[in-house]
Design goal:
By secondary structure, the chain is α/β, with parallel strands linked by helices. The chain contains ten helices and nine strands. The strands form two sheets. Strands 1-2-3-4-6-5 form a six-stranded mixed β-sheet, with helices on one face. Helix 2 links the parallel strand 1 and strand 2. The protein starts with a helix and ends in a 9-residue tail after the last helix.
Length: about 250
Amino acid sequence: TSRQIFGLAPDAEVTVEAHTDSVTQASLTLLRKAGFTRLSAGAESMDQTELSRVGRPGSPLNTIRSMDAAREAGFTNINLDLMYGLPGQTLESWAASLRQTIELAPAHLSCYALTVEDHTHLKASIQRGLLPAPEEELQNRMEDLAEEMLGRAGYHRYEISNYCRPGFASRHNRLHWTGGHYLGVGPSAQSYVGGRRFGNVSDLTAYTAALQNGLLPVSESNHLTQADESCERLVFGLRLIDGISL
């Protein structure tokens, strides 16, 4: 197991990413028994129409079911991702998503502003006038509303996009933002070790073939200079409520 190979601390936080459509009671129970202590799932919105507009599979009902299943499996450290600034989303519908998510009582919440990436179906739809582009002013108001509602519900905002109940700040996220080293395994996994950042190939077949041939399945690798590291510490540090030390 990973604990035997890497010598993880007894209280290590071991996170698994899950999709609310694909998890089952049985699979979550297996993951919990395998040693995973934290579950992170993308709810994105509690409004089915908003999910459908951006082509997001899943449903609010599946989010609720997956939360129940996770708790039955023994998970207590659960994160849900939400997005704001979705096409057609209003301040009222965002407030409703927040209220319904708070009722689910996750230990941690990540609230991300929608960004439109190049070469995506969403960007093509916006360019063709089929969907409206995100409104920056509205997104700012949604961000303020999230901080207000989540704060009243007992969540501490410790980073621009992240909120937690006391004691449940994500160790994984904090490690990234404070320049810690991490090793990612599996297709597309990213690592940062000894001043070098590298990423694995995304294709599962190529990943498996490389390992079978005794090769590291790395597709990109960059060495960070001391100046690079300092710049990253500054940028990421400004995202944290703790700020940075000059």
